[in-house]
Design a protein that fits this description.
The complex is a heterodimer of chains A (115) and B (115). Chain A is 0% helix and 56% strand. Chain A contains no helices and 13 strands. In chain A, the strands form 3 sheets. In chain A, strands 2, 4, 5, 6, 9, 12 and 13 form a 7-stranded mixed beta sheet that branches. In chain A, strands 1-3-8-7 form a 4-stranded antiparallel beta sheet, with no helix packed on it. In chain A, strands 10-11 form a two-stranded antiparallel sheet. In chain A, strand 5 and strand 6 form a beta hairpin. Chain A is globular and about 40 Å long. Chain A starts with a strand and ends with a strand. With 115 residues, chain B is mostly beta strands. Chain B is 0% helix and 53% strand. In chain B, strands 2, 5, 6, 10, 11 and 12 form a 6-stranded mixed beta sheet that branches. Chain B has a 4-stranded antiparallel beta sheet with strand order 3-9-8-7, with no helix packed on it. Chain B has a two-stranded antiparallel sheet with strand order 1-4. In chain B, a hairpin with a 2-residue loop joins strand 7 and strand 8. The radius of gyration of chain B is 14 Å and the shape is globular. Chain B starts with a strand and ends with a strand. Classes of the chains: A mainly beta (115), B mainly beta (115).
């Protein structure tokens, strides 16, 4: 079974631009979560999508948004980039059975650098 | 408030030593899930273990063992006879049972195992 894939792996943007990152979950996984990892703040939860609906959201400004498609693939978008948005963005997928939370499988991440 | 504290920022041991990584969590939920993940230098998080709040049984998997104590809100991880390949950052994480993933990660403990 293929793992979680994220594209692109590396991205360099300038302040004020916008960026779209893509995540393909493991086949059959309907839950996709996004995390931001920085040296200063660690791993922070951005949002989670399940069956094309945002189910949970972290404490990030509205410049961070996402969506999920019917095939469970997900994208996240960051508009009006700031220097502080430079980070490793990780996507994770999981199966959820009722109210049981299984482990999340993480992709390799997209390294975003904002200049 | 939900919180995960990994007080040990970095630990350095010599190969074959035993090492324990501490994790203390805070949550008001009665049902929740705890996880440990490993992030090797390659960057991709790897799932190690999941525990739900109703299962306080300790677990051993090869050289890895976990001690879950609700009374002290701790979920500690021990590596027995450490090896150089164990060098990585280890994250403890909490997923409250709020309907969907909203995982809170600890800051991580960087483990160096020297030959």
């Amino acid at each position: 079974k293929a793992g979680v894939t994220q594209t692109p792996r590396y991205l360099i943007k300038t302040r004020g631009q916008q960026v779209t990152l893509s995540c393909s979950p493991i086949s059959g996984h309907r839950s996709v979560s996004w995390y931001q990892q920085t040296p200063g703040q660690g791993l922070q939860f951005l949002f989670e999508y399940f069956s094309e609906t945002q189910r949970n959201k972290g404490n990030f400004p509205g410049r961070f948004s996402g969506r999920q498609f019917s095939n469970s693939r997900s994208e996240m978008n960051v508009s009006t980039l700031e220097l502080g948005d430079s980070a490793l963005y990780l996507c994770a997928s999981s199966t959820t059975l009722g109210r049981s939370y299984n482990e999340q499988f993480f992709g390799p991440g997209t390294r975003l650098t904002v200049l | 408030a939900q919180k995960v504290t990994q007080a040990q920022t970095e630990i350095s041991v010599v190969e074959k030593e035993d090492v324990t990584l501490d994790c203390v969590y805070e949550t008001r939920d009665t049902t929740y899930y705890l996880f440990w993940y490993k992030q090797p230098p390659s960057g991709e998080l790897v799932f190690l273990i999941r525990r739900n709040s109703f299962d306080e049984q300790n677990e051993i998997s090869g050289r890895y063992s976990w001690n879950f104590q609700k009374s002290t809100s701790s979920f500690n991880f021990t590596i027995t006879a450490s090896q150089v390949v164990d060098s990585a950052v280890y994250f403890c994480a909490l997923t409250p049972n709020t309907g969907g993933f909203k995982t809170i990660f600890g800051a991580g403990t960087r483990l160096f195992v020297k030959a």
